[in-house]
C-alpha cells in the first residue's frame, strides 16, 4: 500500500471516528436536556398536587420555601424557592403531553421558562412553533416576545378558532404559513434614519443594513433585487425590494410608502405581483406575496379594503423609533378588535 493510500485511509478513519463521537455527544446532550426539563416539570407537578390540597396561598409559599431549604441541604445549589416556583409554573402551564412535545422540539429549560410566562395560550403556541421552525436561541426568543411579534403578525388579527387551526396545521406539517411571517408593524429604528426622510432614503438604509433588516423580517428571507424593473405595456415600473422566502417558497415584493396607505398602492402592488407571477416565478414556487410598508397606519381603511388572509397583498406600518410598549399594545389591541369585529359581521 503506497503512502498516499495510507494517508487517505488514516483521514477516513479519523473522519468516521469523529462522526461517531459527535453523534454520541449530540445524543447525550439531547438526553440530558430531556431529563432536565422533565425532572423540573415532574417536581412542579408534585408541588402543584400538594398545594392544591390546601388552597391557601400562604400555605403554598411556605411549602416551597421549606422544600427549597431541604433540597439545597441535600443536593446543593439549583433548588432555590425561585427555581421551585419556575417548576410549579411549568406544571401549571403545560400538560404532560405538551411538555413532552416541547422536549421533542429540543427546547431547553430556558426556552420553556420564556414560554410558560406568556399568558395567552395561542401566543405561546405561536412562539413555540416559530422558535422551532427558525431555530431561535433563548436570547432571540426573548427579543421576539418583548417586541410583541405575535401581536404584530397578521395571524393575531384573526378569530381565535382560525388562529388555533393555523397553528395546528403548522405543528402537523412543520411548515410556516404566510400570516406567521407578515407583521402589522416593522421596527426599522436600526436604520438610523433622520426624523424627516424620503422613500429613497429608507430604501438605501434598508439595503445598506440588509442583515439587520432581515432579522426583523425573519430568518428565511433571501434578498433578490433592489429597484426591480417591472415593464408593463411599454411602461417601466420599479419595485423597491424583492425577496425570496425559503420556507414559504414565495417571492416577497416590498414597496415603501411615506404616509398613510392609499387604495392606489394596492392596485400598483397587484400589477407587480401579476408580472412576477407570470415572468419571474420558478417551478415549485407558490404565487408571490406583496408587502406594502407605510409610515402611518390606517387600520379601518386596510380592513375595509379586505387586505386579509384571502389577499396576496399585506400592509404593514414601519416605525423608525421603537414606540412605547404600552402605546403599541393599545394600538394593536384596537387593530385586533376591529379585525375580529369585521369577521363577526361578515
Roughly what percent helix? 55-70%
Can you give the mean pLDDT?
A: 81
* Lateral arrangement of strands in the main beta sheet: 1-6-5-4-3-2
Number of strands: 6
Our measurement of the CA-to-CA distance between the termini, rounded to an integer number of angstroms, reads 80 Å
- The helix count comes to 15
**Model regions low in confidence, pLDDT < 50 over at least 5 residues:** none
- What is the CA-based Rg, rounded? 25 Å
Can you walk me through this structure?
The protein has 346 residues and is α/β, with parallel strands linked by helices. The protein is built from 15 helices and six strands. The protein has a six-stranded mixed sheet with strand order 1-6-5-4-3-2. The longest helix is centred in the first third of the chain and has 51 residues, at 3-53. The protein is globular and about 80 Å long. The model has no long low-confidence stretch (mean pLDDT 81).
Give descriptors for this structure.
single chain; 346 residues; alpha/beta; globular
Amino acid at each position: 500500500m503506497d503512502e498516499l493510500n495510507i494517508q487517505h485511509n488514516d483521514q477516513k478513519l479519523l473522519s468516521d471516528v469523529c462522526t461517531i463521537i459527535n453523534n454520541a455527544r449530540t445524543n447525550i446532550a439531547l438526553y440530558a436536556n430531556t431529563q432536565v426539563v422533565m425532572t423540573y416539570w415532574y417536581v412542579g407537578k408534585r408541588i402543584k398536587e400538594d398545594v392544591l390540597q390546601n388552597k391557601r396561598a400562604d400555605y403554598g409559599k411556605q411549602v416551597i420555601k421549606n422544600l427549597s431549604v431541604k433540597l439545597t441541604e441535600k443536593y446543593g445549589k439549583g433548588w432555590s424557592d425561585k427555581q421551585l416556583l419556575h417548576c410549579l409554573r411549568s406544571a401549571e402551564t403545560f400538560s404532560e403531553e405538551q411538555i413532552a412535545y416541547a422536549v421533542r422540539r429540543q427546547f431547553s429549560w430556558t426556552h420553556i421558562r420564556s414560554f410558560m410566562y406568556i399568558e395567552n395560550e395561542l401566543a405561546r403556541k405561536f412562539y413555540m412553533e416559530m422558535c422551532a421552525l427558525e431555530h431561535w436561541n433563548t436570547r432571540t426568543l426573548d427579543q421576539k416576545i418583548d417586541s410583541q411579534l405575535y401581536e404584530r403578525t397578521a395571524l393575531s388579527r384573526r378569530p381565535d378558532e382560525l388562529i388555533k387551526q393555523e397553528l395546528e396545521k403548522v405543528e402537523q406539517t412543520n411548515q410556516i404559513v404566510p400570516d406567521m411571517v407578515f407583521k402589522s408593524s416593522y421596527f426599522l429604528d436600526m436604520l438610523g434614519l433622520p426624523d424627516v426622510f424620503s422613500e429613497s432614503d429608507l430604501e438605501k438604509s434598508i439595503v445598506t443594513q440588509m442583515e439587520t433588516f432581515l432579522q426583523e423580517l425573519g430568518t428565511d428571507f433571501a434578498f433578490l433585487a433592489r429597484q426591480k424593473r417591472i415593464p408593463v405595456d411599454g411602461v417601466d415600473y420599479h419595485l423597491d425590494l424583492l425577496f425570496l422566502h425559503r420556507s414559504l417558497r414565495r417571492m416577497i415584493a416590498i414597496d415603501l410608502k411615506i404616509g398613510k396607505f392609499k387604495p392606489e398602492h394596492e392596485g400598483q402592488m397587484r400589477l407587480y405581483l401579476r408580472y412576477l407571477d407570470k415572468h419571474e416565478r420558478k417551478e415549485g414556487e407558490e404565487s408571490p406575496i406583496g408587502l406594502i410598508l407605510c409610515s402611518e397606519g390606517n387600520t379601518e381603511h386596510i380592513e375595509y379594503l379586505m387586505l386579509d388572509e384571502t389577499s396576496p397583498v399585506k400592509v404593514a406600518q414601519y416605525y423608525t423609533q421603537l414606540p412605547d410598549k404600552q402605546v403599541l399594545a393599545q394600538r394593536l389591541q384596537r387593530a385586533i378588535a376591529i379585525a375580529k369585529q369585521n369577521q363577526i359581521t361578515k
